[in-house]
Amino acid sequence: MSKIKHILSAEVSDSEIINGIEKGDNRIINKMYKLFYPSIAHMITSNNGTDDEAKDIFQEAVMVLYDKITQQKFELNSKLSTFLYAVSRRLWLKQLSRKGHSTNTSDISDFEDILHVEDDIQQHQEIENKFDQMNEAMSQLGEPCQTLLKDFYIKNLSMQEITDKFGYTNSDNAKTQKYKCLQRLKKIFFTIKIAE
Q: What pTM value is reported for the model?
């Protein structure tokens, strides 16, 4: 597969994106927009923003990234998605503050911005790590617990629906099974957490 086809068809690693930005590769930059813009747009539009404002903020975040990559030796200490999300979030909070919306930030200096972005990145990274650990724990849980917990917590099925689906005699038995499954999941989760 040619490099161009690889870039356009496959997932691109963070280092490939950084190298592409350094070289001014528009294909990489377009791919970056497809990968990272949706979550940032969702964050902004869910917090008093418009689609146009989301595009502007994302563009600013990309420019911050571009400046960091081209003006200094850039060392990425998190996922690129986490970095862009944290920068975008900080820029959006600053803009909300200027627009008069009450936020927990006001008159933020550039230095404080950098500190907060690094805090945001660390916090977001910790959340991502917990999700990864939880996914790993769920994959080790096995059936029927895995499906039962997904049905209850993700699909929002009622205990009666779970009782019917799994053939339990009543909803109290289904609740007991759900409790046992949760206990097993917690045990697996903390085993994974300790191992890391």
A: 0.49
